[in-house]
Amino acid sequence: MKGLELAHAYYREYEERLKEIAGEDFDRISVGLCGQGSECFGFDDEISKDHDFGPGFCIFLDDNLKEKYGEKLAQFYEGLPKEFMGMTRMVSSHGQGRVGVLSTKDFYFANLGIDKEPENLYQWYQLSEERLAMVVNGRIFHEGDDGFMKLRKTFLNFYPEEVKLKKLASRFAVMAQAGQYNYGRCLMRKDYVAAYFALSLFMKNAVSAVYLLNGKYMPFYKWAHYGMKNLPVLGNLSDAFLWLSTSSKGIVSVPTKDEGMRQYEGSVLVEMICGEIVKECVKQEILKEPVEFLDDGVVLLQGSIKDDLLQRLPLEM
After folding, report:
1. Exposure string (b/e) for 169-194, b if CB count within 10 Å is 16 or more?
2. Domain range for residue 78?
3. Is the same domain home to 293 and 191?
4. N or C: which end of the chain has fewer CB within 10 A?
5. pTM (whole model) above 0.90
């Protein structure tokens, strides 16, 4: 059973007792499972179950309700059976505080470094994709009319358009420098360590560009490619990244229709990925015209940003 399904069943089993404690304030409390952990993304498997997995859910409280119900709800939660449907939650030293009664402000600040809606485009630009992915993932079993849901909905609406353009410009800059330029040059020098660094930077930034074009935050690197496969826009490029991962001294192996393997230069796949991303940018009218070298795309993307401060900010490199 997936962690989200287990958490939902656990909550439903004890939902009425929670309602009794909160009374008429129940509709001002949100309950669900989100945040850190593969189960919050729905990516958990048998390997994931060796730590920080098991029955559990989060009860989010705004400051006024935390003062009123925090202690009672903490006692309620701590008194719940530790075993449910044959599973017991295993908590590692890094997994403390992921479930139970949580302060809304503490949850957002611990994960984002901010506990309120960003006030300007600069603050939006500073927010990490990986951490935004953590605060909007999972499932909310009971949506309250509270600060937690208001902020969650704000972040679910994704980056403001100009911030997305700035982040895409940053991704294009690294893809051009690391993938289209330095990857090949490092291989010519037979500096294979540097070539792997360049390829890794290219892949991470290209995958991030795909998420941005889907209006989704890219999760933690361990799950970025895994989650990409289900994206409606350019999710089919996941195979190309898998093939690039087989790179050995610049040569990659690609399966053929007859179940054999054919070898290509990795730079060919790099250019193919860049071309598909550019094509999608033109389709979405993010770029008015196609470019071959992505550094030219950086100039076009930057030129579409009207906010003076955001335009002048350094690119994320």
Report:
1. bbbbbbbbbbbbbbbbebbeeeeeee
2. 3-156
3. yes
4. C
5. yes
